[in-house]
Specification:
Number of strands of chain A: 7
Oligomer: heterodimer
Distance between the termini of chain B: 84 Å
Shape of chain B: rod-shaped
Strand content of chain A: 15-25%
Helix content of chain A: 25-40%
Helix content of chain B: 40-55%
Shape of chain A: elongated
Order of helices and strands of chain B: HHEEEEEEEHEHE
Number of helices of chain A: 5
Strand content of chain B: 15-25%
């Protein structure tokens, strides 16, 4: 009986997976090519008229405090920093001192295409100083001369936001951490 | 015959049977390899599909670097390299040293971009209307690191005229 069963056992054919494997192997390089090599992110910016509206909760306490109106103007020879339309370090009695920037270049002799010639460290220190006085403020208006390259604009936004600021980890409704300084940039048309 | 002798004979018979057996063809086991490859393909497909916007830098474009970590929101991408402005895989304007050709800019509005963007906006608005949702225009500017500030302002102004209220600058994460 046992011998009979063995003879008539149905032979199960193994599926031929080679063509499927071939397709799979072709799919891997195709998908790898379509993948992002560098990790991309985005900086949300607002034009002047669409400035971020203050939240209802803090509206009342904000009304009591004087608005900061923090503004950074990127010049070819440094940063002009102003608060409430008064330039920091301007001559007495003048709202703006066009002859010199508030924060001059870190590398004045560097070429124009050297994006590291600006003193981002000093700008961040200035932003930290202002944040200590105006802890509720998150908005900064950034403007520049027409010839300023995009990398300088982005690095300026990084400096005023704070180098340790991580916005991805913050969940909706959560308070922003202290490391995040001025992370809502408004891009305003410049002059010159 | 003793049981030991019987056992020896049986053993000998089995040995002889084994010797006479034809060599079986060895089959390569592809199942485990297939499993690994399937996992890789699924992972790659997932990472491909999870990005709301697929940004593929164009030729002669160096995207600026930043420490920002916020993800890219869905929006209309506008590519600007050091030589051209590209919208919907089509060259819209030519740039010289990071600046737009003055003939295409009229009062901060980049005329060819305005036309193309207007078409796209109308389509997008109709889709949102059909869904019963409010349309919020979002432009993703994928610019070159050397792009001049005046060009950035022109692009933002052009999009602003078409009721785009949200803007993002695409960057490559540092570190």
């Amino acid at each position: 009986m046992a011998r009979y069963r063995k003879k008539n056992e149905i032979k199960v054919e193994e599926a031929n997976v080679l063509p499927v494997m071939n397709i799979m192997f072709l799919l891997i390089p195709a998908l790898l090519l379509a993948m992002e090599v560098a990790s991309m992110a985005a900086i949300a910016v607002s034009p002047p008229k669409f400035a971020a509206a203050p939240s209802d909760k803090k509206e009342e306490e904000k009304k009591e405090e004087k608005p900061l109106k923090f503004k950074v103007f990127i010049l070819e020879d440094g940063f002009r920093v102003s608060t409430a339309a008064q330039q920091e370090g301007a001559e007495a009695g003048k709202a703006q001192d066009s002859s010199k920037p508030t924060i001059p270049l870190a590398k004045p002799s560097a070429a124009i295409d050297d994006y590291e010639r600006y003193d981002y460290g000093k700008l961040e220190a200035k932003a930290k100083e202002l944040k200590e006085k105006y802890s509720h403020e998150t908005v900064v208006t950034i403007s520049a001369e027409n010839s300023i390259p995009m990398q300088v604009l982005i690095s300026t936004m990084d400096s005023v936001r704070g180098s340790d600021c991580k916005l991805l980890t913050i969940k909706e409704g959560e308070d922003f951490p202290e490391e995040c300084l001025f992370f809502q940039p408004i891009v305003e048309a410049g002059a010159g | 015959m003793t049981p030991e002798e019987l056992f020896e004979i049986k053993k000998e018979l089995k040995r002889a049977k084994r010797r006479d057996k034809e060599l079986e063809e060895a089959n390569m086991g592809l199942t485990s390899l297939m499993d690994i490859v399937s996992i890789i393909v699924v992972y790659l497909l997932k990472s491909y599909a999870s990005d709301p916007v697929l940004i593929t830098p164009i030729a002669e474009q160096k995207i600026p670097m930043s420490k920002m970590d916020a993800a890219i929101k869905e929006g209309v991408p506008i590519y600007i390299s050091s030589r051209e402005l590209i919208f919907k895989e089509e060259q819209v304007a030519v740039l010289k040293e990071g600046e737009l050709d003055p003939s295409v800019v009229q009062g901060h509005i980049i005329a060819p971009l305005f036309e193309k963007l207007e078409e796209e906006t109308e389509k997008s608005k109709a889709i949102f209307e059909g869904r019963g949702e409010e349309w919020v225009g979002h432009v993703i500017l994928i610019g070159d690191e050397a792009l001049k500030f005046s060009t950035i302002v022109d692009v933002m102004y052009t999009a602003g005229r078409l009721e785009y209220s949200e803007y993002s600058f695409c960057i490559i994460q540092k570190g």
